[in-house]
Amino acid sequence: MRSTPAETVTTHFDVLIIGAGISGLGAACHLKMRRPGTSFAILEGRDSIGGTWNLFRYPGIRSDSDMPSFGFGFKPWTHRKAIADGHAIMDYLEQTVAERDLAENIHFGCRVLGAEFSSTEGLWTVTAQRSGTGETTEFTARFLFAGTGYYDYESGFTPEFAGVEDFGGTLVHPQHWPEDLDYTGKRVVVIGSGATAVTLIPSMAGEAGHVTMLQRSPSYVFSIPAEDAIANTLNTVLGHERAYRIVRRKNIMLNRGIFKACMRAPKLMRTLLIANVRRQLPRHFDVDTHFTPRYNPWEQRLCMVPNGDLFKAISSGQASVVTDRIERFTETGIRLESGRELAADIVVTATGLNMSALGKITIVVDGRPVHLPDTTVYKAMMLSGVPNFAFAMGYTNISWTLKVDLVCEHFCRLLDHMDSQGHAIVEPVLDDPDMERVPLLDLSSGYIQRGIAAFPQAGTSGPWTAEMSYEADVERLRAGPVEDPALKFTSPRSSVLAGQREGRR
């Protein structure tokens, strides 16, 4: 997916969407379906759609959610694999762009630097820097929608390791995987125990000489079928359109059921999850050391492995697990605190991600810079004190896109309401400054704990909560009313739809 023609000069729109990943594309599709007269553009800093799925290129990259619930609600997932490889997800997104005729709406190579809202005009002015030339371009819009996710695309997280400069092999972070990296027959150490590590290890094990997962502490690893037999049968019998609704509902119920069981009966679920691991590893394997976490299930995200591929790699002897702490790197590998040394030709630091709040965009309202941690999320999709602004941030305990779909639906309903009532500006106003505020995301994962302080916060009552609950959000965002005492609507004369602002075209 390349950029739109250079001769395109339109810079004013009803809605500007930041980011052409799964969230931004979802917002664009919902606008096209629900508000065909609304003008919009997507500003994407990279040269392709896909966001995370285009950024990460490490071996075996795949979804860690089932695709019937991770895909869009309006576009059936038709691939036989429910846990899909990265290239299949990219194909799905490219098909979405083609089917919805979104290519002409996407401005590639436009990295948004800042956005300023004027209450007098009822407009956002967005400054974007063009890749290659470094020139800046200004866009204006009635509404701003951020589909930026929460990953920092510029750099992943790597702890400071003593002696790393002495290492004579190759050091790689999965976020910056070299296309020409040859690990055939090599000794590979993957540092980490999260979703990236458990994906990399079975993918590399077939070609590498040996792969070692080096972890400071274990994570919960849950084996699921790569293909959903029920879904594939229903697709054959009913066709993709009718089957998709059934399979999607089934998977949502199953995933929510597992999560709720972990919250209500953590000891039981811990026992069941670890028993599932024991069943797939050799009898002598030390599961207590290597696959028994210190925390309860879903205090951090569960790591999903399709068809138990990680356990198969370990059982075959192609991969192994070491649970220890790193003392320092050496010329030939890594020395551990236990005194053991792991020889390595390649070390992969699958040590986590850095978080980035709203893509590091500087936001200003009427000349006042917005300090994101001072804001409170409204319905987990808008910010207190920030007019005509919405964002999509998916779930941490179920498929990301389920939340994106609900946010986009509610966003379109909000625009419909404003148009019908003649409103031009809407702003969430926190009417209880003494309300306790809490982190927007509450997982104990290291990357969240390191970065969450830079994000907006959630409240503890009313529309200010940010529960990771799909059914609660269905009630609030899909079925609930748009009008709310916490929303302030105003109608300055100079703020009108882009279709009426021909002078800016």
Comma- or semicolon-separated keywords:
505 residues; FAD/NAD(P)-binding domain; nine-stranded mixed sheet; five-stranded parallel sheet; disordered N terminus
Q: Would you state the CATH class of the largest domain?
A: Alpha Beta
Q: What is the total number of structural domains?
A: 2
Mean pLDDT: 93
> Terminal Cα separation, in Å?
25 Å
Structural class of the secondary structure composition?
alpha/beta
The CATH architecture term of the largest domain is 3-Layer(bba) Sandwich
Provide the low-confidence segments as ranges.
1-8, 494-505
Morphology call: globular
CATH topology of the largest domain: FAD/NAD(P)-binding domain
Task: Estimate the helix proportion, in percent.
Answer: 25-40%
Largest sheet: 9 strands, mixed
Count every beta strand, where a strand is a DSSP E run of 2 or more residues. 25
Organism: Rhodococcus zopfii
Region (Disordered): 483-505
Protein name: NAD(P)/FAD-dependent oxidoreductase
Pfam families: FMO-like, NAD_binding_8
